[in-house]
Every structure is written in C-alpha cells, then in structure tokens.
Amino acid sequence: MAKIQHTSSSPVGGKKLVGQVVLAEVSRHDWGEMMCGCLESANHVPRDFLAALRGAPPERVGEGWADNHVYIQSNLMMPAVATASMVAAALADPLVPLMWRRSLIQVLSALCFGEQDDVAAACRDARGCKWSLYEEIGSGRMIDAASYAFELLMAFPEERGRLGFYQERYRANLAQDLHLENLDVHSMDW
User: Fold this and answer.
1) Each residue of 115-145: pLDDT tens digit?
2) Bigger pLDDT: 9 or 138?
3) What proportion of the chain, given as a percentage, has pLDDT over 70?
4) How confident is the model at residue 186 (pLDDT cuts 50, 70, 90)?
5) Range 42-61 average pLDDT
6) Would you say 44 and 81 are in contact if contact means Cβ atoms under 8 Å apart?
C-alpha cells in the first residue's frame, strides 16, 4: 500500500485535526492502485481531504478532493468505496471540525446514491456511519446536516423503525419536508 503523509494529524495550534481512526481508515486502502476521476492515481484523494479539513468546507460540496475525483456528477469512480469509508470514519471522529459535518454527509450521500448500483451499494456498506448520522439528527447543531443525515439513512430499509422514531422525537432538528405529516417513513415503499 502507498504510504500517505498525514499532515493534518500534526498539531496546529496544539490541536490535532483528525484522530487515529481516520488515519487508520486512510491507510487501509491502496489508493495508488485506483484510478481517480481526474485520470491520475487516487493517492492525492486522502491527502487533499486531510488538507481540506484545515479550512472551511468549500462552497461546492467535495470540491478539491471528492468532486471530479471520486464522483463526477452522479458517476462513481474507482476510489468511491474507499472514500466512503474514510468519510464515515471522519463523521465518527470528534476531532474533525463540526463545520464539516454537512459537507461530509453530502459527499457520503453522493457516493451512496451514485448511478453504479453495485458501487453505491458497496459505499452503503460503510454502515458504521449510521450511528454518526443518528447523532447528527439528535444533536440539534444544524438542521441542514441533520436533514441530509436523515435522507441518507433512508437508504437503509432495515432502519425504518428506528428512523421513524428519530423523525418523531427530533422533529425540531429536521427540515419541514421531513416532518411526519410530509413524509411518513413507516408507510414508504422501501
């Protein structure tokens, strides 16, 4: 496997930007063996992702590290599954800046709902992220991040009961179009 320099793990002002789980997930994949959407080796994807976490999320979701590299519009590229795992690890990492949560969930959604059904299904297998998504719904930090998390959890039919409970309990944390009177997850055709 290619060795990735983890510059974002070094302290900036005494604070680490990512924890060991993200770094372990990055190193678990052979990024150099994957062709990126930019027609280069995908080695740059985790480096660019870790570097991006130092600043504010870009205006266009995934710009500079996922968009046109891991996915192009709704077409998924070779590093999609590895990226889904890396993003799921970042969602679980308390060191990743909170301002990144909405963007990370949007990237994960793009990967889980991409056009290539087999690749999208493999991206959804990063199911460890589901508790991070439920945490986002319950946190009340950002309605848009909670709403994206809710919509992503709709990709998991086995979560219908739990998701319905969260929909009712954390109604105030979700966008109005996701309230029970507008979208009843219990009666959806999953």
Assistant:
1) 999 999 999 887 568 889 999 999 999 999 9
2) 138
3) 91
4) confident
5) 96
6) no
List of residues 6+ apart from 145 with CB closer than 8 A: 101, 102, 105, 136
Residue in the structure block whose two tokens are 């976490």: 53
Burial of 29 (0-12, 13-18, 19+ CB in 10 A): buried
Q: Which residues of 144-167 are buried (b: 16+ CB within 10 A; e: fewer)?
A: ebbbbbbbbbbbbeebbeebbebb
Structure tokens at 80: 């999609």
Residue 177 CB coordination number (10 Å)? 9
CA–CA separation, 10 vs 95, rounded Å? 12
Sign of CA pseudo-dihedral 19, 127, 115, 178: negative
Q: Which residue has the higher pLDDT, 92 or 9?
A: 92
DSSP code for 172: G
The span from the CA of 91 to the CA of 105, in Å, is 8
CA distances (Å), origin 21, targets 68, 93, 150, 164: 26, 7, 24, 30
- What pLDDT, on a 0 to 100 scale, did the predictor assign at position 187? 84
Q: For the stretch 72-86, what's the b/e string if a residue is b when 16 or more beta carbons lie within 10 angstroms of its beta carbon?
A: eeeebbbbbbbbbbb
Cα angle 172, 174, 177 (rounded to 5 degrees) comes to 115
